[in-house]
Amino acid sequence: MSFESLGLMTELLRAINAQGYSTPTPVQSQAIPAILNGQDILASAQTGTGKTAGFTLPLLQRLHTSPANTTGKQRRPRALILTPTRELAAQVGQSVKNYSAHLPLRSMEIYGGVSINPQISTLRKGVDILVATPGRLLDHVNQHTVDLSGIEILVLDEADRMLDMGFINDIKKILARLPKQKQTLLFSATFSNEIRQLTQGLLKSPVQIEVAATNSAAERIEQIVHPVDNKRKSALLSYMIGSQNMHQVLVFTRTKHGANRLADHLDKDGIRATAIHGNKSQGARTKALADFKQGKVRVLVATDIAARGLDIQQLPHVINYELPNVAEDYVHRIGRTGRAGHEGEARSLVCIDEYKLLSSIERLLKRKLPQDVIPGYEPTPGMQPSPIKNGRSHNSPKANNGKRTKSPHAGQAPVHAKGQRKRRTGNQAGQGGR
Fold it and tell me: Is the pLDDT of residue 378 over 90?
């Protein structure tokens, strides 16, 4: 199958060719014809499956081939793409620009962490496509600097992540501002109960697409567990990276402070590293990611802000310095490697405190992960596990009867009933979509 056979116009085929693509992925081959036909979409698609092009290409064609309703009004946005994080908004926005290179359509990204005034100026000039995070978009709505009454196509990208980050109320407020008659495209890695509740009344007879088994890890990713004492993890990490001459290594920690400490440790060991998390300014986060992609730093230490949204071509190594408290997040983390047909490697440094987390991950994957004890870093026999202080399990919504509580998990928002989270504000908002 070719892109030509999907019914895409010449201008888009030129843009696709310029990006070096020749064959559509499964999600693209299923989604593009349905979207071109004006149908709603409910798609389960893991990261790295080509879903961004799957909705961007037909969205552009529909906007270009149908006249805009601008009678008596300024040029209003006609398509809205909502994403959970700034990084993903920036990447989707760049894809929109790349694919619309030969079309007279204007697009822009709206997210927090940067001044709102340049965004207001661009909106006043008129745009066709908005790529936005929920928090900053609501800021514009509340300041009356954006008019959403002309939206014809709505895309909810990584909808499960947006709900997990506590944006459900923001999304509902945004939906209330949109026309009832519109085409809605929802993409999610998982179909939780919250996702299914959100789709009720939002999607009209949607075409359902599932390109991979829910929560399955990519088959091309080699996954290995290295048992080690907690206090020896940093030494083992330096040893692994140095002895195996690893480059472009994405390392995950649970907390922001932990990410900073680990990056400093690696630097002291002669391995150039930088940290990326929600307390970093948008400029610092953009620079850290750019330096990592360009090879100026060998290791990017990240909190789960990077579990989705970071698009790093042919990333060879992902290392879980600490396992995530939620098994699904493991899948999202390791999904940064093994993308677009390339092989990848995911390693996890697991101490005795994390064995229960490892068991949850293996239940999700429906298989045991191979273990490799590295000589010189063997776990201490007979050591007793200690509770993990930074995690969602210490703030169970049921234990609190759905009341708001302060989460002990640095970088996480408070947990609410049904696993929802309060939207973050201030510096915390940088961890999510403001």
Answer: yes
Q: Report helix, strand or coil for 64.
A: helix
Positive or negative, the CA dihedral 159, 162, 166, 169 is: negative
Residue labelled with tokens 């900053």: 136
CA 334 from centroid of its chain's CA atoms: 12
Say which CATH class 4-210 falls into: alpha beta
User: How high is the pLDDT of residue 385?
Assistant: 82
Q: Which residue, chain included where needed, has tokens 């998390």? A: 277
Confidence of residue 342 (pLDDT cuts 50, 70, 90): low
Give the mean model confidence (pLDDT) for residues 11-25: 90
Q: Which two tokens stand for residue 362?
A: 């293996």
The arrangement of secondary structure in 221-365, i.e. its CATH architecture, is: 3-Layer(aba) Sandwich (3.40)
Q: Which residue has the tokens 């939002």?
A: 202
Q: Where are the domains of the chain?
A: 4-210, 221-365, 393-434
The sign of the CA dihedral 412, 413, 414, 417 is negative
User: pLDDT (tens digit, 9 = 90+) per residue, 295-315?
Assistant: 899 999 998 865 555 667 678
Q: What is the pLDDT of residues 355-369, one digit of tens each?
A: 999 999 998 888 899
Report the number of secondary-structure helices (H) and strands (E) in the chain.
15, 13
| 201 to 148, 151, 168: CA distances (angstroms) | 19, 17, 15
Q: How far apart are CA 198 and CA 206, in angstroms?
A: 13
The conformation of residue 387, written as its DSSP 8-state character, comes to -
**Mean pLDDT (whole number) for 48-75:** 83
CB-CB contact of 275 with 251 (8 Å) = no
